Each structure stands twice: as structure tokens, then as C-alpha cells.
Amino acid sequence: MSIAENLKRIKDEIGTDVTLVAVSKFKSIPEIMEAYQAGHRDFGENRVQELTDKASQLPNDIRWHMIGHLQTNKVKYIAPFIYLIHSVDSEKLLTEIQKQASRNQRTIDILLQVHIAKEETKFGLNDEECHQLTEKMAKNLFPNCRLRGLMGMATNTNDLSAVEREFLHLKHLFSQLSDRFPELQLDVLSIGMSGDYPIALKCGSNMVRIGSAVFGSR
């Protein structure tokens, strides 16, 4: 199937209330343009250098999502144009995003990344840290950052019930924060990738990050 056909199939499956972020890491400019010409605008990258290179060569109405681990010293390179940073996993990083957003005279939308997997190699805040940072956001301590919601990655396992438990945990945390801080109007729960997005949708995801199912393994 073509990239355009893959996009249509996935969008038909997930529905209009769920945002599809096409993960374009390691994909070529022509491949991304094929998706763009099919009407797609949300693309995710996990490396700053690749993201900035592509952003400079592709149409400026693309909504770029930073979905990988972000080092504080790299924030300045994406601050002028990034649409959504999914991977805010420390107050130190949030402080740098605030600094660079202010310097660029813009507000940057962010998600807090929560560690829900059993793997220590994955990044993210624990629940208590997430509550603490959300409270600081609610107090407007980072005025150039807007908290949209949460992101998480499940354990890489064939045990689908374990994946579902992790996703449901994050959904519960999202609901807790939404109830506690209604003024933030949290509206994004970013869970689900190519291998587990049907489970994520069942658990309340409204943003999925899908690469191989869109672009294929070419």
C-alpha cells in the first residue's frame, strides 16, 4: 500500500477525534512529502538535528512534534518552530523550554512524559513528580509554556494485558490532574504506537504516534 493509502486506513480506524502523529524519523524528504501531499500535517521526530534539517526543507505549515528524549542544550534549536514537545521529563528541561520560548516571544505547547513502563531505559516522571510539575504550571510559573496533557510509552512486551494496565494507569493520572487543575484545560493523552495503538485507543488515547504502519518498512 502507498503512504497515502496507509494514512487513510489508519485515520478511518482511529476516527476524527484522535490526532495521528506520523513518526517520520529516518524517513526521506520525498516520503514525508508523499504524506504531506495526501493532506497530512502532523509529523514526529525524536532527534533534534534530523528535526531541524527536515523543518528547513519542508513546508512551514507542518506541525512538528518532538517525541524523543530532549536534552536541555538542544531546546534552543527547535524553540522557534516546534508545535508540541511530548517528552518533558524534568523541571530542568521545562525551565529551559520556558527560557527559550520567552526568548522567541512565543508559547510552546508541552506534554509531561510519565514513566509507566517496567523498563528503566525509558524516560519519564513518576506520578508524584507529575503532580508537582502540573501544580507549578497551574501557578503560571512557566508562563511561556502551555501544558496540554500527558505522554507515556508502555513496556515493550507481548503481554497485551500489561500494556493495557500501563495505559489505564496513565489515563487515571490524566483524569486526576484534569479534575484537580481544571483551569489548565488538559486535552491531550498521547499514548499508542504502531504496535499497541488499538489498546491505547481503548484506554482513552486521543493522540497516537505511528511510524511503520504509515511509511512501511522501506
UniProtKB/TrEMBL annotation:
Residues 2-217 form the Alanine racemase N-terminal domain. InterPro entries: Ala_racemase_N, PLP-binding_barrel, PyrdxlP_homeostasis. It comes from the Bacteria. The modification N6-(pyridoxal phosphate)lysine is found at residue 25. Its cofactor is pyridoxal 5'-phosphate. Pfam families: Ala_racemase_N (PF01168). Keywords: Pyridoxal phosphate. GO terms for molecular function: pyridoxal phosphate binding. Belongs to the pyridoxal phosphate-binding protein YggS/PROSC family. HAMAP family: PLP_homeostasis. Pyridoxal 5'-phosphate (PLP)-binding protein, which is involved in PLP homeostasis. This is Pyridoxal phosphate homeostasis protein.
